Amino acid sequence: MICSSLNLLFFMFCCSLPSPQNSSFVTSRFSGSGQLDDNTLVVFTSDNGPWLLYGSHAGDARPLREGKATTFDGGVRVPCLMRWPGKIPAGSTCREMAWTMDLLPTIAKLAGTNAPTDRVIDGRNIWPLMSAQPGAKTPHEAYYYYWLQGLEAVRSGPWKLHLAHDYSHLAVPGGGGLPGRYAKQHIGAALYDLEKDISEQNDVAAKFPDVVARLQTLAEQARADLGDSLTKRKGTNVRPAGSIAVASARN
What we know:
- This protein is 20% helix and 19% strand.
- By secondary structure, it is α+β, with helices and mostly antiparallel strands.
- The two termini are 34 Å apart.
């Protein structure tokens, strides 16, 4: 299939690459292959931060706060490396806000098609960011941090507002591949400047009430759109999860 489509843009998804060293194995398969190498976009990223519950088997998000299963940046902010010779400048760095849901409309655009139009697509085309175009900015006014159906935080620019919620904090680390134990903790409304306080330690809500008010307005927009179980709101654009009919079993 790959060899018969060398003239087309080629995408490949690998769901199990535990380290950046292993990703080099993938890129080495294309190096020196000419047209295939030139037409392959490689994206190396993760779906969440480290699962701190498993101790030495989990990884470490520091200086970010907390880890997987929380909406602190240690739980959701992940590295992302991209490679596409001749398209993405080597050594370029992006500091703008983006998320993995942006890959759908971006890849659709690169492949010469469009994302579905019969539903709301939360992702945006981030090719200007990926290709390091001068002055490129994030297409997102806000980023919403949901845990299940609960809206726990909202970010816009460098500002991140945590809304009051409980979260799981590591109380007893695991070891030897066995899990430790979480303890429930609570955070009230708290504002952080992530450019100056990447660890989310210094609440500056009292100093910037106008920023808090603006982010609360954005949070209300998200509740109207997607709902919020913490405030018992039902969103107008919430739809059932997709499903595939299961064929009846044959005897």
